[in-house]
Amino acid sequence: MMIILFFPAVTVDVQVSKFYSDPQIAGNGPAGIALSSFLSGMHPFYDVRHPHENVTVHERLLANQDFSLIDQDLSWSSDLTELSQSGRPLSVLYDMLVRPGADMGSESPGCLQWEMHREREVDHMVIGETKIGGSWNEYDPAMLTVSFSDWMDMPGLTMEQWLCGRPMVKRLPSVAIATYLKKYVEKLRLRKKFHQHFVVSSIRKVGDVWVTEGKRSTDGRMFRIRSKQVVVACGKTSPRKLELPNEELCSSNIVYDVRTLKERLDSTKKTVIDEECYDTPSTSTSAPVIVVGDGVSSVDCVRHCLERDIPVVHVIRRTLRELRNVMLSRLSPAHYSEYTNIYRMMIGRHAHKNYQRLLDSNISSISKIHVEITTGTREIIEMPYSTLAVCIGRESHFSSVFDSAHTFLDYRSQQDPTLFAVGAYAGDHFVRFLVGGCLRVAQHINCNMNNNNVEKGVKLV
């Protein structure tokens, strides 16, 4: 006997939030915030009361003092010797105007004055995977910034103005920067432009319109944004991995940032105390933490281990000669003592009972109980470990959302003039320089808006 079962047809109703915005900015960290400020009408003007010491800069800007920098042709900046070698002359010019002589320790007032022109607002939409502030929400709250506090200033509202006075210390904890970015958006009334927890899965060109798709991480609802112009303002948020065969299988023993390592070390210490395991060997004789990398994050990991009396093996791919030219070598001991102390250990100037370095080396194999380290002489060292901290930089996953590759010159795609990039995605890794890049993109977008009658507005369907 044949039994036939009939099932009712099921229709899955996928709710999709539909938006139209021009331009659309992907990334709600400092770059996305700074660009939103410029597009909302925050315009910088040359302040003739505080002339810049560079005669050419002063004369060029003085001749156009009635126009904001957004409305000026600043291409002459690429001809200045001080700027031409940077590859991004406008970014350096902006930094020179906001912080004249900063690298020489000068605290001279800036050469710009700010005016909010709401009538010049370019309607736009900013989306981000996190809360407003981008990756600053993910850092260890107690971590001190590498940049000085006034190097973190957003357009028109400085850190000093927000704090109602100059900070007592040059470097502030990351939680202060994250708070400042959120308050900046509120103070300048930009909040309505920002949409949080939007995870982008694809950006593609359909005709003359960009279509950005993804879903919200809070409720899983899909979204689709149509726009004539797109700006990629996302930072490099995804940690680089070793790309070893067993890396995923050993993920419970691997961390990729300082915050996670601190949490792991603190939780391990707490567990030992709570269980009163008095027979547990002391940390000074247990398997070491192995730290891979030679940048600021790796040094933070080393420092946190040593502060807890935990032995650490520092695996560095550079040779001693190469190591003498990294960014750490140029940090001032007066302001960065925690970094310069570790750096001296890295180059062999200082020693510590719990610190061991392996130069010209890399991790070649990993299991859950030990790693294999290959040295420059092809020697293979097998070593047990408790935690592996991989701090070899970060990368952006955003390149994979496009259906074709793009290269950027002057912050604009060479393949499509309606696609832009700012911030770390464009190679500006420090806030003091990325704001100038945002200024340049604001110039591009304002020019495009003047040349094209583009429908404005954002709507939710």
UniProtKB/TrEMBL annotation:
Organism in which the protein naturally occurs: Caenorhabditis brenneri (Nematode worm)
Signal peptide span: none
Membrane-spanning segments: none
UniProt xrefs under InterPro entries: FAD/NAD-bd_sf, OSGIN1/2
PANTHER family named among the record's database cross-references: FAD_NAD(P)-BINDING DOMAIN-CONTAINING PROTEIN (PTHR15192:SF8), PROTEIN CBG05349 (PTHR15192)
Protein name in the entry: FAD/NAD(P)-binding domain-containing protein
Listed SUPFAM superfamilies: FAD/NAD(P)-binding domain (SSF51905)
